[in-house]
Amino acid sequence: MYEGEIAIGPIHSAILEPHRLRLFIEDEIVKDAELTIGVNHRGIERLMEGLPPEKACILTEKICGICSHIHLWNSVRVVETGSNIEVPERANYIRVIVEELERLHSHTLVFGHAFEILGHETMSMRAFMLREPVMQMLFDISGSRVHYSCPIIGGIRPRCNIKDSQISGLIERIEKYEENLKKLADRTINDPMLVSRMKDIGIMDRKVAAKYHAVGPTARASNVKSDMRKMGYAPEYDPFEFDEILLDDGDVLARIIVRIYECLESVKILKQALKELPNLPEKFYNPNYEITEFKPIDIYNEAQRGQVYHSYGVDGEGRVRHSKVRTPTATNLACMEKILKGYHVSDAELIIASCDPCFTCTDRLIVLKQCIE
Question: How many domains are there within the chain?
Answer without folding.
Answer: 1
